[in-house]
UniProtKB/TrEMBL annotation:
This is HD domain-containing protein. NCBIfam families: HDIG (TIGR00277). Residues 224-410 form the HD-GYP domain. CDD domains: HDc (cd00077). It comes from Oceanirhabdus seepicola. Pfam families: HD_5. It comes from the Bacteria.
Length: 410
């Protein structure tokens, strides 16, 4: 079975928005370049707003459909290079340059060839003052469009008066004509900004996601499991870098899940899906603030509940992908317990498939055997003693424990 490319990117776009929202606390960060105070609200549905604005600009500029497709897809994940550096602030030169290059490098593969270059240049200014010093028409048109859409999406979100203050936003764009934006891009924006419907759609984009559908190109491309695996590795790398002590956590669990699946005799398709569940299982951690994930000390009840919510967000992020339900369920159930004391849904043994049980055991095994700042990883023997004890308490599945042990020691 193949999977819809657009649905997969919408899923990953949601993950990126959640990650950016999780970066900011009550303190605002001021960006002197754009005169914007970044807050949590700044990134609420940021990718959707950026994408909507970019598509309206594409329509106004009457671009060809292939270019519009590339700009649409690039808009959805334009900040993919930002996640590991968000704590450094959107405002620093180091961040702006780094996340453009990182994003482009992450996407340098056969799936994202056309998108990669758009993302590399999406912070360039028309006058050449951007991080890569590209100037004028040397900046790809897609990058120029996303540059304006990205800034406007944030300025609109941070504007508490919203529609009442749209004239200020229009004036700001005009003031950056032939500096940040070309006259062509500026004029296209002025044309779409003159309508009430543009601003009303922008206000309602979070509540009515179908608004984007009305102007988005129809993406007929599909992805194989091999191609989704490439994307899964990209995001597992982003997730694992969020915590300094989990550099290979998701990839190791993916390997363990695959090894056990092969040992059981699952067909290759199912083995690969188990690997994907391992790669994606912690993608919900992108929604958890790093200051809580990496706290040096015990967590408060509130903080622990926040950390626990990552399994819920894993389920939410993977939900847009039709036909991916088995992977989504296995991935998001990795903290459920047979006796109903797990999370996020307090499922019991009757609700948990063998695949979910295997992934849960692989997760615990990997967590116990990998080094952490406060302890060295445990030996395999000690780890299986703990796993067997947990199974005797009806927390995890003894069959899954035995299968992992046999697969590792066959």
């Amino acid at each position: 079975m193949n999977y819809n490319f657009e649905e997969v990117l919408n899923s990953m776009s949601l993950a990126l928005d959640l990650a950016e929202m999780s970066t900011f606390d009550d303190n605002q960060i001021f960006d002197s370049e754009t005169n914007i105070h970044y807050t949590t609200e700044s990134f609420l549905d940021h990718s959707k707003k950026t994408t909507y604005i970019a598509l309206e600009l594409c329509k106004e500029l009457d671009l060809n459909k292939y270019l519009v497709e590339d700009i649409y897809l690039a808009s959805l994940i334009h900040d993919i290079g930002a996640i590991e550096a968000l704590e450094k602030s959107h405002a620093t030169h180091e961040f702006i340059l780094g996340h453009c290059i990182t994003g482009a490098n992450l996407l340098q593969n056969k799936i994202f060839d056309n998108i990669s270059e758009i993302i590399r240049s999406h912070h360039e200014n028309w006058d050449g003052s951007g991080p890569l010093n590209l100037k004028g028409n040397s900046i790809p048109i897609g990058s120029q469009i996303i540059r304006l859409a990205d800034i406007l999406a944030i300025k609109f979100a941070t504007n508490s008066k919203k529609l009442l203050n749209r004239d200020d936003i229009i004036s700001w764009v005009k003031s950056k004509n032939n500096v940040v934006f070309s006259s062509t891009i500026t004029q296209a924006f002025m044309n779409i900004a003159s309508t009430d419907s543009f601003w009303l759609n922008l206000s309602n984009i979070a509540k009515i996601p179908s608004l984007i559908k009305t102007i988005s190109p129809r993406i007929v491309r599909t992805l194989t499991l091999d191609e989704i695996e490439i994307i899964a590795y990209i995001f597992s790398q982003i997730v694992d870098k969020k915590s300094p002590f989990t550099a290979k956590h998701s990839r190791e669990i993916a390997d363990l899940s695959y090894i056990v699946s092969k040992y059981i005799g699952f067909n290759e398709n199912k083995c690969q899906k188990m690997k994907l569940a391992g790669l994606f299982h912690d993608i919900g951690k992108l929604a958890i603030p790093s200051k809580i994930l990496n706290k040096n000390g015990s967590l408060s009840n509130s903080e622990f509940n926040t950390v626990k919510s990552h399994a819920y967000y894993t389920n939410l992020i993977l939900s847009p992908i039709k036909g991916f339900d088995d992977v989504r369920v296995w991935a998001s159930n990795h903290h459920e317990k047979l006796n109903g004391t797990g999370y996020p849904n307090k499922l019991t043994d009757k609700d948990l498939s063998l695949e979910s049980r295997i992934l849960a055991v692989c997760d615990i095994y990997q967590a116990l055997t990998e080094d952490r700042p406060y302890r060295n990883g445990l030996s395999q023997e000690k780890t299986f003693d703990i796993l067997k004890e947990m199974a005797s308490d009806n927390l995890i599945c003894i069959k899954a424990v035995k299968l992992l042990h046999e697969a590792l020691n066959r």
